[in-house]
Amino acid sequence: MPNRVQHDLARIAAAGGGVAFDASSRSLNELLRIAEGAAKGKATVIMRGIATRPTAELERIGAASKGRVVFVMD
């Protein structure tokens, strides 16, 4: 997938489309919006490149997604 903007990814997830992307350069707020979209659309979102993010951020993203986000710790 090309490097889509956060708004596009959130809309795709909210529509029920699953997405996988490199989250390493995205802000926490961007990831939260995408996670919220996944929860709304009951879509699975796979976030790669998040191994260095603080646990507290991953907890917030996970909570916003209501269990719809998979973190790839690479």
Structure description:
- The protein is α/β, with parallel strands linked by helices.
- 46% of the residues lie in helices and 16% in strands.
- The protein is globular.
- The chain has helices spanning 6-14, 28-41, 55-65, and strands spanning 19-22, 45-48, 69-72.
- Helix 1 (6-14) runs parallel beside helix 2 (28-41) and helix 2 packs parallel to helix 3.
- The longest helix has 14 residues, at 28-41.
Short description:
The chain has 74 residues and is α/β, with parallel strands linked by helices.
Distance between the termini: 19 Å
> What percent strand?
15-25%
Number of helices: 3
CATH architecture: 3-Layer(aba) Sandwich
Briefly note the structural class of the backbone.
alpha/beta
The Cα radius of gyration reads 11 Å
**Helix fraction by DSSP (H/I, runs of at least 4):** 40-55%
Q: What sort of overall outline do the alpha carbons produce when their principal axes are compared?
A: globular
Unreliably modeled segments: none
Average predicted confidence as pLDDT: 93
Spell out the helices and strands N to C. Answer: HEHEHE
Strand order in space, largest sheet: 1-2-3
